[in-house]
């Protein structure tokens, strides 16, 4: 009997081992092909993304060329010169002398722009600035519009972009040739982490049939390869460029066949440009072999466990153990408050889902959900009620998803949903909207009717990652993007969101120390009367100079300061510094009115009246010399709740102005209620006048409204005499902009607009 039992056990064990071996062999080859195909697809996508990055850089160069070629003041002066058939050589030299410094100023915002040559319609150079090639054959400007190529120069290769200079009627006035340093392209080609160890990148450009690689010092140099091999690469890349699509092939680079490689060829959208990537085949497919080894080990372990379980017949014991384990597992893997899977169990479910997705070559999505304004509910109604609300939210979300979907709570008011077997990424967006809609109906908790929304971020595998932690983190990043957009909405992850998140974190950390390190400074842009150009005031504009020397404008950090709760601290500093500076100028014989921009949060949340009163008392400045600007968007959204505080500011004796006027749609009805004395016409309406009938009508209408309401008007963004003459013809009383002066430091402002400076200009 015992011998028979041993034989049965032996046969069962052998059967399990043989079956496991056959299953392993049957699944190994399809698994290898699936992993290989996925790896090649990801590599093609990465190479295409690299090519797109190169295209973006070249497109930025073309944009710079078009912007410089379209500068109206230079075009008008060139057109006037060309229309004079009797123009002399001295007039040509005068034209070049006029253009040169202005073209230099236009080049300054682009640090990689190293040279520029402007030619007349005949192809003769008018102005040459910076590094340009020694030999430059004539090029028809109309035919070469937007042409981008590499040209040799004394210091190495340069990127040449040609742009026509056209009159307003489209008549050719000449052409610009801009020369950009190759450092930006070289740095992209020299990225050692994009395609793995041992990978190389080359570029094919219209400079000739030679592959180029990143050289020392940010230069582009011919690839270090044998002429024959180089020719083969160039020929194959040329074929890919002609086909207009990316392709991945395998190649043997030496005669012995030992040096095998994976070649990826991607054409750029810019005509004639292409990218070639060479990856060592051994390292490239090593990941696939590693995955197969891991699968083989799993199969062996499972075979051994199955054989051992069968041999010892431990099912009764396992039953008891399973019952107990099912209970040190439910408590360890499920959230005690909502009963949903917790973070650890979600990570495990997601990891298994990723394995299944790789096996059947399908996509899955991770949805990261965060409740909007949940902290306000905890603070106002208490944490016990907040916990009951979370339980109700969990129940409602669970009813909105499928049984096979993995819904869990990470902690706090954060939930995660894993969706498998997606047909297309858009399906995840539809599910996200379904979850948002499920929360629209109010929750009744302890006789309180509570409305709450949610912001959802979405990441999709394999596009956004193949690791559970990476997918959750990127969905979290996308969620913050949704909150920043408008809340109660959803957003897919993009690399730009990750970059914005990193920049946001860096700026948030630095901004919290900016005041104590004295990194904030005010610049002042003068305001003048249209008639006589008499300077009567200055707008204070805050700048942040980081420890690295970067000067950051308010457009990049004010919104962050508002969200981080720093706007009141920064706003009080700006008020105090502006008032102090205005009082200092007043004592020095420069009695100006200083204008300070207010954040809407300063008005509706802080003690803005007390802040302004303190700034005036500490500086000794007369209230009449302080003007506070509120945006039209604030007027539209907060007129009712902010009206009393605005009246309180007016009772202090300060002036109030509506900034960016004209960009909203419903603020006109509030003008008669608000205690404002001035409207500032937004620069977007000034940039195209005269010439744009719609903008001309809007400006005239704003001036008419202001006149009827007895309000002063300041036009922002005046950049040339033509715009000023147009405003003068409509009776606009005041203006500011770069035509009068760009924003200046306090010392520069006093030097130019102080008593001595005004005397010199007079």
Plain-language structure description:
With 762 residues, the protein is an alpha+beta fold. It folds into 4 domains: 2-46 and 288-326, no CATH class; 47-287, Beta-Lactamase (2-Layer Sandwich); 337-493, Alpha-Beta Plaits; 505-761, EAL domain (TIM Barrel), CATH 3.20.20.450. It contains 25 helices and 27 strands. The strands form 6 sheets. Strands 19-20-22-23-24-25-26-27 form an 8-stranded mixed barrel, surrounded by 4 helices. A 5-stranded antiparallel β-sheet has the order 2-1-5-4-3. Strands 13-14-12-17-18 form a 5-stranded mixed β-sheet, with helices on both faces. Strand 20 and strand 21 (551-552) form a beta hairpin. Helix 10 (374-381) packs antiparallel against helix 11 and helix 24 packs across helix 25 (755-761). 32% of the residues are buried. The model is unreliable at 225-231, 314-319 and 756-762 (pLDDT under 50).
What is the compact description of this entry?
By secondary structure, the chain is an alpha+beta fold.
Number of domains: 4
Total E-strand runs: 27
Q: Quick one: CATH class of the largest domain? A: Alpha Beta
The biggest sheet, with number of strands, parallel, antiparallel or mixed sense and barrel status, is: 8 strands, mixed, barrel
